[in-house]
Amino acid sequence: MIPACECVMCMCMTKDSKKWTHEAVLSLISNFRLHETELQSVQFKKRQVWETIASAVEQETGFKSTSLQVTETYHIAFPSPPRPQQLILSILSTSNIQQE
What we know:
single chain, mainly alpha
């Protein structure tokens, strides 16, 4: 069994408590970058793209995971930035500026 890495990136655990290895996380990042445009495109189903990424991670590292585990781990490691409207409302709610 490959030992789990203790770096911050690899401390990601899926909801079923599966700890990722350092090699698997690096493979996930690399494969995400390869398929990023497909994930943003409406022509591809996101689940199928994540399944492709999960398969590639397994082929490259031997680390077995489902498309859901790959998706969760990526989003835990790289949370989405707030949308501009959310950011503005957050700033307004913490300042003394009155909303109209």
